[in-house]
Amino acid sequence: MKLYDKNDFAKLRKVGALAADTLDYITDYVVAGVSTYDLDKLIYEFTKKNGGICAPFNYMGFPKHCCISINDVICHGIPNKHEFLNDGDIVNIDVTTILDGYYGDTSRMFNIGNVSDEAKELVDITYNAMMNSISICKPGVKLSEIGKVIQTMCEDAGFSVVRDFCGHGTGTIFHDAPQVLHYYAPENDKIILKEGMVFTIEPMINTGDWQMYVEDNDWTARTIDGGLSAQFEHTIGITKNGVEIFTKSQRGLYKPPYKK
Ligand code: MF3
Ligand code: CO
Ligand code: CO
């Protein structure tokens, strides 16, 4: 795992802002009737226009520029000409932007029209769990504390934490060590947060069980029981006394009922 300095943090701030701007920009287009293919195209064009590169394209053979994951899709949904958003869907859009060799990795949920109370609660709890786990990050804290906060909060609400995917170190490498598990894992007791660490927190939380399967396309992960899955992601850096979120919405667009 690499440690990053002041100059690196300046670059990460820039790419993080562009990634967040991309989600801010796409927000107005995320409505019933749009195809995930068109959303992907808009994200590609916006990123290019602003001097960035979409990291997912061709990454380990991934065929599109972002991941769009609807309802029971946990992550890695592939944008598709024949897939349209419908009223009542909950949708995750995950963008990873490269600027000047640095990565900004972030995702948000979008509620399409009339969404069930259960789905709304899932989305809010997932966001709050991510933000609460970020708020405890500072030098000296065990990496395992992040998973503890997320798991406790989500399981108390009756939801489950996906085990098969995790957050990751990032910076100038898309996916680096450490693995940031979103449930309590004793092996992460030994990793202590330090100034200069850069990683993502990206919990995937389900209404039913956490078990998943991967579709024949080798990417799209779905819940086995058909339950809903929500996810948010920020790229963060550990500072001298706390934490900096690189991928915060510049327009303050994502303002759910975040409470400690
Ligand atoms: N953005 C995802 C993450 O949070 C990774 C997507 S890899 C892809 O780590 F190839 F599916 F795009
Ligand atoms: Co990530
Ligand atoms: Co991501």
Please write out the topology.
Blueprint: H1 6-26, H2 36-49, E1 53-54, E2 67-70, E3 73-75, E4 90-99, E5 102-111, H3 117-135, H4 144-156, E6 160-161, E7 167-169, E8 176-180, E9 198-201, E10 204-206, E11 212-214, E12 221-223, E13 229-231, E14 234-238, E15 243-245
Antiparallel strand pairs: 1-4, 2-4, 3-12, 4-5, 6-10, 7-8, 9-14, 10-13, 11-12, 14-15
Helix pairs in contact: 1-2, 3-4
Bound molecules: 2-amino-4-trifluoromethylsulfanyl-butyric acid and cobalt (II) ion (2 copies).
| Superfamily (CATH H level) name | Creatinase/methionine aminopeptidase superfamily
Number of domains: 1
Instruction: Report the CATH architecture.
Output: Alpha-Beta Complex
Q: Report mean pLDDT, rounded to a whole number.
A: 97
What portion of the residues fall into strands of 2 or more residues?
A: 15-25%
- Ranges where pLDDT stays below 50 over 5 or more residues in a row are none
* Total beta-strand segments: 15
- Using only C-alpha atoms, the radius of gyration works out to 17 Å
Quickly give the structural class.
alpha+beta
Order of helices and strands: HHEEEEEHHEEEEEEEEEE
- How many angstroms separate the termini? 30 Å
Assign the CATH class.
Alpha Beta
Q: What level of helicity do the residues show? A: 25-40%
- Say what oligomer this is: single chain
The CATH topology: Creatine Amidinohydrolase
Descriptive tags:
three-stranded antiparallel sheet; single chain; Creatine Amidinohydrolase; 260 residues; four-stranded antiparallel sheet; 24% strand; binds 2-amino-4-trifluoromethylsulfanyl-butyric acid; binds cobalt (II) ion; 15 strands; alpha+beta
